[in-house]
Amino acid sequence: MSACRRLLITRERLVGRVLQDRKNEHLDIVLGGLGRSGAHTGFESIAFEHVALPELDMADIELGTDFIGKRINAPLLVSSMTGGPERAADINRNLAIACQSLGIALAVGSQRIAIESGAQAGLGAELRQLAPDIPLLGNIGAAQLNLGFGVDQARRAVEMIGADALIIHLNPLQEAVQPEGDRNWRGLLGKIEQLACELGVPLVVKEVGAGISGRVARRLADAGVSVIDVAGAGGTSWAAVEAERARVPAQAAVARAFADWGIPTAQAIVEVRAACPDVQIIGSGGIRNGVDVAKAIRLGANVVGQASGILDAAIRSPEDVIEALSVTMTQLRVACFCTGSTNLAALAAAPIRDVSRFG
């Protein structure tokens, strides 16, 4: 092996180690509850009109829906979460088993490390073996499209887990306040459009906690994006996370100023649905329970994503994940019952009230 090749391999390993350490730090901060946004989701401002005489059998309520070409038992997606490869492998395994058992969708965390270093962290063919029937979504960062990633790498991300769709995640705020962040975002819309045309599976674009506006969503839809995950403000704030891991006070101060930055999740869902009536929408960002899921569906989401709310369970076992998500599904069923909704289409038309004026 040439000296140049050895140097390149050493550099790739060092870069991989830095990325793994950073993701471990992120995971620890989120688990410690230090990455919460100071923003509200907007769901607290609305309430369903209670139906005291629902005239239906709660057991007959249908929560199933279609998502990226597959039937799921409830409009739920376990959203992207990750950590260092060792921990991520356990998390991915637990989530895959749980989502397959419940018949709901699963989106993996960023596959950048797996693509660049070969450290799969549970992001290999075994993931599809554990979850053969559910919608499975791969994931790479938009910023990587300006750093050498293209159609070939996107196809690798899909093929390595047998994904049904690929997520391109948008995290400009996180990259802007992260000392080692990738800040060249020129020309990314065109590269996203190229992927949408050439990839061969549906392309999903998601934010990571600051929301997607109706205007940006329309541009993405026009570029061929099939699904938009609004990932609004009110849940995990990656600016707050980066403030916690900052090494010097000045870096922390810059990041902390943006801890409540973003479009509230409820507002983002309404805007994107108005701008893109024919696009599937994932409502995520600060989803706490099945009542929030019901509100997201009512405002225009097709599927609702949760991540940090089940992270504790994901680290422990598949059974803990199943229990946590089963609670959410039962809460959603009760919300349907108490609005007289026999299915999700009826829930999407259920009367709601603006309760913000009542304090």
UniProtKB/TrEMBL annotation:
- Tell me the superkingdom of the source: Bacteria
Q: Which residues bind FMN?
A: 79-82, 110, 139, 206, 236, 286-288, 307-308
- Broadest EC class? isomerase
CDD domains, sorted:
IDI-2_FMN
Listed A to Z, the keywords are: Cytoplasm, Flavoprotein, FMN, Isomerase, Isoprene biosynthesis, Magnesium, Metal-binding, NADP
Q: Where does substrate bind?
A: 22-23, 110-112, 174
State the coiled-coil residue ranges: none
Residue span, FMN-dependent dehydrogenase domain: 191-350
**Family, similarity comment:** Belongs to the IPP isomerase type 2 family.
**Quaternary structure and interacting proteins, as annotated:** Homooctamer. Dimer of tetramers.
Q: What does this protein do?
A: Involved in the biosynthesis of isoprenoids. Catalyzes the 1,3-allylic rearrangement of the homoallylic substrate isopentenyl (IPP) to its allylic isomer, dimethylallyl diphosphate (DMAPP).
Name the UniProt record assigns to this protein: Isopentenyl-diphosphate delta-isomerase
Q: Which organism is it from?
A: Devosia rhizoryzae
Q: Lineage from the top down?
A: Bacteria, Pseudomonadati, Pseudomonadota, Alphaproteobacteria, Hyphomicrobiales
Q: Which gene encodes it?
A: fni
